[in-house]
Amino acid sequence: MEFNILKDLVLLFGLALVTVVLFRQFKLPSIIGFLCTGIVAGPYTLGLIQNTHQVEQMAEIGVVLLLFTIGIEFSLKELLRIKHLVLWGGGLQVGVTILIVTLLGLMFGFSWQQSTFFGFLVSLSSTAILMKLLMDAGEMDAPHGKACLGILIFQDLCVVPLMLFTPFLGGAGDGILGILLVSLKAVVVVVVSHFAARYAVPWIFNQVVRTKSRELFILTIIFVGFGTAFLTAQVGLSLALGAFIAGLAISESEYSHQVMGDIIPFRDAFMSLFFISVGMLLDPSAVIRQPFTVLLIVLAIVAIKWFVATGASLALKFPPKPALISGLLLAQIGEFAFVLSYSGKQFGLLDDGQYQLFLAASVATMALTPFSLKYAEPFANSISLRLPAILKRGSRVTGTSHDRFPMEDHVIIVGFGVNGKNLARVLNGNGIRYIAIESNHHTVKTERKKGVRIIFGDASRPEILSHALIEKARIIVIAISDATASRRVAAQVRQLRPNIHIIVRTRYIAEMEPLYKLGANDVVPEEFETSVEIFTRVLRTYMIPNEQIDHCIAEIRRDSYQMFRTVSRRHSHATGISGYLSGVELATFRVQPGSRIEGSQLKDGLLRDRSGVTVLVVKRGEEINSNPDPVWQFEPDDIVLVLGKPSQLVFASHLFEC
Q1: Which residues pair with 501 in a beta bridge?
Q2: What is the fold of 4-26+61-391?
Q3: Is the pLDDT of residue 126 over 50?
């Protein structure tokens, strides 16, 4: 049995680990490390990899998965909303770039066929590199992110006609009639693929989710993504474009967030292979023999593409800053240009020397892209400040994030069973916003119809938490019954947001300590709360007064929760005022009309003398008064934050009741 491909993968990933770690020590992007890995391991340097074709095939899977995830993230509605960017922005960028490069080629003595083909190559930018960088930087929803995506989508659409025209430029092919016929077939397949995915995908996922099998769910994702890509490839469209269409179809379903969480690990692994495979194509001796030629080509490509893409963005009425940033980010050669260049070489439009010069310049422009993203904004600022006022105007607005539930300072509820629904009801009643995460698709569908802000997915995945806007949330409540899953979620949340308040519901007291170790702030055991409810009902049956029952509850909770908090503090890495508040708690009360506290002043000592609590803050309407003066007079609906022992808080609560 042959294990050559496995050996090649082990060599590549092992070398990539060393290279990327070394590059990260110098704060250089991982992409450059992967490109250098390919150069070192490729046939022109150490020759560690003999069969580069197999690696290139697997690398193409990375591009397919990247476009698949971009489609899921973007949504069809958003694509239709920026269709002007795709058609006009992309059309201007591709058309003008081809025209300028063709004219330059003719000036340097190349034939019109070769010059036009050079224009084809230069017009394409790297969707794989740029989209990954923008996604990692969280700038997909920025104006320049939307502009870049619109232009890149048009470029990907253009790959098909450019591939069809290449044989024609080389003197082969079936002429214009053949091009039109294949183009028509391509349009039909795109339309059929879209509508089939649009209506078939939700039904397929509904059947799969009912099985509650994660393995089957992942297999379905791969089938839908690669199946659509394969279908579009049958008529000459790129695999990546088909994957993008499949991603758009899934983006409209409630399963899109979970699909993203499951597919990203595969995408990242194969994307690293793509960058490595690009590096393997390059012969370093070509750069050594003609370094100045390569440098001039790189400068020419960057200058032309920056100028044209910036002009296209300005023509769409973008302000100068995002237009300049977009132009700089698009100033590299794309991955599909490598496929196109190989085809041009076969038809005599490039000789071996020109092919290697093109590869060298292309890899250089790709390696520059991470630095372009890093310095694009200060570069654009410095230029836009020097522009005359008439050029600083821009009316184009691409919109902000397409998140379904934009909010901040909210509560995330993990698990929408009885506990989650009760919490949501109380939060709604008090005007506190929330987002729920639930893995039961029936619950998600039912609650969404009621207008509940709910996401389908596994809350232990960072992508799901990100869609719940964990970076803006104040509290997360983990209200699921699975102890193992609760620990996974708590650990992931604490890693993503060190300062968020985590409350966990658990069944047994024995499960509390592991949760505190993972960073939970509060753990509520059902075992203990059930015992409290049981003895409360027993005492009521014996006609024990409510005040005495409340006192018993306070005593039990004081002793037991004091023990629980001791466990919490033992595993807390934070030191602060909470360490000095042993035995006391904070509580909030509302002054009810007709209560004993209404109309009294702090200096009267009613609260302090009767209950022993200390008033810290009083909120009246939107006004917050910290450490109020002694002459402060309590009015109905004042909200009072007090500090005291559990038994003291019980007595204080009666003073606020009518």
Answers
A1: 475
A2: Na+/H+ antiporter like fold (1.20.1530)
A3: yes
Element (H, E) at 253: none
Helical (H) or strand (E) element with 437? strand 434-438
What is d(CA 244, CA 63) in angstroms, rounded to the nearest whole number? 10
Residues 85 and 154: their CA atoms lie apart, in Å, by 9
Other C-beta atoms within 10 Å of 230: how many? Answer: 13
- Residue 40 dihedral angles phi and psi, to the nearest 5°: -65, -45
Percent residues over pLDDT 90 in the chain = 12
> Residue 260 has what pLDDT?
76
- Mean pLDDT of all residues in the chain? 80
pLDDT beyond 60 at 401: no
**Rounded mean pLDDT, 26-48:** 81
- The answer to whether 435 and 405 have CB atoms below 8 angstroms apart is yes
Is the pLDDT score of 411 beyond 90?
Answer: yes
Residue extent(s) of CATH 3.30.70.1450 domains in the chain = 585-656
User: What are the φ and ψ backbone dihedral angles of 317, each rounded to 5 degrees?
Assistant: 70, 30
> Percent of the chain having pLDDT more than 70?
84
Structure tokens at 368: 């520059």
d(CA 285, CA 395): 49
Lowest-confidence region among 199-213, 584-598, 632-646: 199-213
* Letter string b/e over residues 138-175, b meaning 16 or more CB atoms within 10 A of that residue's CB: ebbbbbbbbbbbbbbbbbbbbbbebbbbbbbbbeebee
- Please, are residues 248 and 76 in contact by the beta-carbon 8 Å criterion? yes
pLDDT at residue 519, rounded to an integer: 84
- CATH 1.20.1530.20 region(s) of the chain? 4-26+61-391
Alpha-carbon distances of 31 from 52, 94, 132, 156, rounded to whole Å: 19, 25, 10, 21
String of DSSP letters for 546-612: HHHHHHHHHHHHHHHHHHHHHHHHHT----SGGGG-TT-EEEEEE--TT-TTTT-BGGGTHHHHHT-
Q: For residue 501, report the phi and psi dihedrals to the nearest 5 degrees.
A: -90, 120
The better pLDDT of the pair 77, 357 is held by 357
Compute the distance between CA of residue 573 and CA of residue 554 in angstroms, rounded to an integer: 29
For residues 645 and 578, the answer to whether their CB atoms sit within 8 Å is no
In the chain, CATH 3.40.50.720 covers 412-580
Helix (H) or strand (E) holding 478, with range, is strand 475-478
- Please give the pLDDT value at position 437: 93
pLDDT at 400: 41
The Cα–Cα gap between 225 and 205 comes to 13
What homologous superfamily is domain 412-580 in, according to CATH?
Answer: NAD(P)-binding Rossmann-like Domain (3.40.50.720)
Give the helix, strand, coil percentages of the chain, each rounded to 5. 65, 10, 25
Check if the beta carbon of residue 395 is closer than 8 Å to that of residue 317: yes
Annotation: CATH topology of 585-656: Alpha-Beta Plaits (3.30.70)
pLDDT tops 80 at residue 241: no
**Mapping DSSP to helix (H, G, I), strand (E, B) and coil, where does residue 623 land?**
strand
Of residues 524, 506, 507, the one with CA closest to residue 564: 524
Q: How far apart are CA 213 and CA 362, in angstroms?
A: 44
**CA angle, corner 198, sides to 195 and 199, nearest 5?**
95
| Beta carbons within 8 Å of 430's beta carbon, 6+ residues apart | none
Distance CA 377, CA 380 (A): 5
Q: What Rg value do the Cα atoms of the chain yield, rounded? A: 32
Strand ranges (E), 125-222? none
